[in-house]
Amino acid sequence: MYSRDQGGPFLEVGAGFAHYSLVQGTGDPIEPVSKTANAFVSGGGAGFKLGVGWEFQSEFTPRIIYSLGREDRLTDGETTVAKAWTHQTLLLELGLRGSLNDVSKLAIRRRSQKSSPWTN
Questions:
Q1: Quick one: DSSP state of residue 37?
Q2: Whole-model pTM over 0.70
Q3: H or E segment and range at residue 70
Q4: Where are the beta strands (DSSP E) in 1-120?
């Protein structure tokens, strides 16, 4: 999401698919999973999210996002470990947007005002 000249309401919508597996790691950060490793459990599913929010001109941006995911089947190769597993998440986010350049200019201005002998 990008800042706009004028604030206002916005809507976020998203959907996606996922495949995941639980495998034994190698301990190597470059290649964390062995190429010959078999998955302990694996599965896949789909999900979507819906969010609404408001972008104020002061760069304050509250939003609330609801997401729903459903995994069809979780298996260990042959046996179904779980099926029709769903999860829901409600996220409340309070954001403050701005550039670091603006923040550093403000800090320098405050510091120079404090050290100046000409200010009260």
A1: P
A2: no
A3: strand 60-75
A4: 8-22, 41-55, 60-75, 80-96
